[in-house]
Design a protein that fits this description.
single chain, 70 residues, mainly alpha, two-stranded antiparallel sheet, 5 helices, 2 strands, 54% helix, 6% strand
C-alpha cells in the first residue's frame, strides 16, 4: 500500500489533491490508525493502467477542480 505522498509523486499531483480525492472517496483507502492512511497498490495500478486522460477528464474522474491538477 502507498502513502498519500507516494501516490502524489506517482500521479505527479500535489499531496493535497490526493488528500481531497481520498476525503471525497474518489480514491479507495484504508486507515491503519487515526492519522495513518494507506492507498492500496491495486487502486493506483488500475488508475495508471487506464488510458491517458486530459486534465479535464482526470479532474472529473477524481472529482476535483482542473486547477487542483495543474
Amino acid at each position: 500500500a502507498y502513502t498519500m505522498r507516494e501516490v502524489a509523486d506517482l500521479l505527479n499531483v500535489d499531496y493535497y489533491t490526493v488528500r481531497r480525492a481520498v476525503a471525497a472517496d474518489k480514491i479507495r483507502s484504508f486507515r491503519l490508525s487515526s492519522k495513518v492512511i494507506r492507498i492500496p497498490r491495486e487502486e493506483i495500478e488500475q488508475f495508471l493502467a487506464r488510458d491517458v486522460y486530459t486534465v479535464s477528464e482526470a479532474a472529473q474522474l477524481l472529482g476535483l477542480s482542473q486547477p487542483a491538477l495543474q
